[in-house]
């Protein structure tokens, strides 16, 4: 099946010489939830803005369902809904008028039944006659999503969709996004909330300093990089790691008081029982032990953490 979005060698360099994106290659599958994860300033919004035709790329091209977003701008853009970070709406318009007007901007004929369906899906029906200025921040965010869906796009971009939203509303929005995917909408979200990507995404891309440094299935990412550590606190400090323990993935802290055993949490055998027997045979007594699973956050930090380049 052809990817719904194809990003080929896309780069963006501003007049100042700042390189915001460096030759990005990425394919988004039809019907998936794809999370683009990265710290603030990594290039997430720039990439989305290029795909949506808001910013011009300096190099490369983007295809939306096979259509070039530059050469076939109107057709390609009609496939895309965008929920930007900023909550920009006319404060004195009603929810109904705001969403209906957005549909008209894309040349779609009036369809009150569809607008009603979208508002009900987003729990906005009871607020349809309320003016935008009377809504809470979370409700305004929902209206922005309704606007983005008003012209029935097959691709939805959510740029930091839960920024400034409380935890309860964030989880409601996660459920809503899953529902959109079930209705056939491909969802691409940018976020720096690790739990958002871990909770929702089918695949995760990590972007940092304008470079796409990893794209992987979420579960595969956790399997490949999500290791488990067993921390063994020793009764008596060791001067060095005994050579006979070399078969284990062990490290000794500088004080000699703690061993750290790293193992694959998904492997059939952890090797912990064998390690404990080996320690006992060597007369190494333990004071305490603790285990810890690597989280997606730790994986993310390890991927984006680089020493600053020397000037």
TrEMBL record:
<dbReference type="InterPro" id="IPR003593">
    <property type="entry name" value="AAA+_ATPase"/>
</dbReference>
<keyword id="KW-0067">ATP-binding</keyword>
<dbReference type="InterPro" id="IPR050763">
    <property type="entry name" value="ABC_transporter_ATP-binding"/>
</dbReference>
<dbReference type="InterPro" id="IPR017871">
    <property type="entry name" value="ABC_transporter-like_CS"/>
</dbReference>
<keyword id="KW-0547">Nucleotide-binding</keyword>
<dbReference type="GO" id="GO:0005524">
    <property type="term" value="F:ATP binding"/>
</dbReference>
<dbReference type="InterPro" id="IPR003439">
    <property type="entry name" value="ABC_transporter-like_ATP-bd"/>
</dbReference>
<protein>
    <submittedName>
        <fullName>ABC transporter ATP-binding protein</fullName>
    </submittedName>
</protein>
<dbReference type="Pfam" id="PF00005">
    <property type="entry name" value="ABC_tran"/>
</dbReference>
<keyword id="KW-0813">Transport</keyword>
<feature type="domain" description="ABC transporter">
    <location>
        <begin position="5"/>
        <end position="234"/>
    </location>
</feature>
<dbReference type="InterPro" id="IPR027417">
    <property type="entry name" value="P-loop_NTPase"/>
</dbReference>
């Amino acid at each position: 099946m052809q990817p719904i979005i194809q990003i080929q060698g896309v780069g963006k360099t501003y007049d100042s010489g700042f390189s915001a994106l460096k030759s990005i290659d990425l394919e988004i599958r039809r019907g998936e939830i794809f999370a683009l994860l990265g710290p603030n300033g990594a290039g997430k919004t720039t990439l989305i803005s290029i795909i949506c035709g808001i910013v011009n790329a300096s190099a490369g091209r983007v295809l939306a369902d096979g259509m070039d977003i530059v050469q076939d701008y109107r057709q390609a853009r009609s496939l895309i809904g965008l929920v930007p970070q900023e909550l920009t709406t006319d404060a004195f318009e009603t929810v109904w008028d705001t969403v209906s007007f957005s549909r008209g901007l894309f040349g779609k004929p009036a369809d009150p039944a569809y607008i009603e369906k979208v508002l009900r899906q987003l729990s906005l029906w009871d607020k349809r006659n309320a003016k935008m200025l009377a809504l809470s921040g979370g409700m305004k965010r929902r209206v922005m999503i309704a606007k983005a869906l008003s012209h029935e796009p097959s691709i939805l971009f959510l740029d930091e969709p839960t920024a400034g939203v409380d935890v309860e509303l964030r989880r409601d929005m996660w459920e809503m996004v899953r529902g959109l995917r079930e209705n056939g909408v491909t969802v691409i979200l940018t976020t720096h909330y690790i739990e958002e990507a871990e909770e929702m995404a089918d695949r995760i891309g990590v972007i940092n300093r304008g470079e796409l440094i990893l794209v992987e299935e979420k579960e595969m990412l956790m399997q490949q990089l999500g290791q488990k550590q067993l921390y063994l606190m020793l009764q008596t400090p060791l001067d060095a790691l005994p050579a006979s323990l070399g078969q284990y993935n062990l490290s000794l802290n500088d004080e000699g008081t703690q061993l750290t055993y790293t193992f694959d949490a998904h492997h059939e055998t952890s090797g912990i029982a064998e390690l404990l027997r080996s320690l006992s045979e060597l007369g190494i007594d333990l004071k305490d032990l603790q285990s810890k699973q690597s989280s997606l956050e730790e994986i993310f930090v390890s991927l984006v953490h680089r020493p600053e380049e020397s000037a």
